[in-house]
Amino acid sequence: MRYFRFCRAIGGLANDPDILLCALRVDSEAQLVHLTRSLGVPVQEVPTFDRAGPPGRNRPTPIEAFPRFIQPGRVRLANVDCFLWVGQARLELSVYGAAAIPYEVDRKDVENARKIEELLVPFADLVIDPPNEDRCFTR
Description:
The chain is an alpha+beta fold. The protein has two helices and seven strands; from the N terminus they run E-E-H-E-E-E-H-E-E. It has one domain (about 5-45, about 60-135): TATA-Binding Protein, CATH 3.30.310.
């Protein structure tokens, strides 16, 4: 894989899966809008009625760095289910769960990540490699 890296779950009782992770640098709101639109999953604005108050059950989660927008969450890229999360100065794409054992990365997850990587070629200069400071996935 060119852009995705294997990240082990931190373990313990968190029930988190191992994932394939790619992180892209996001320096501005305009860049986030352009990047997500180019990938075919444009960020959505927080509905006006949800702008006040903390997120809760069935309420969209605003992006902390860009509070006008909602976290993308589960999306489809290249006909593949994946998870997008916008953090401080980065957009993370994670692929996992295609395996029979959803907590382990398997061959199908690798194939899915490679399909998504084709969409990321124009953004290769934004890839943060490695996506984490250590080999474990933590958010």
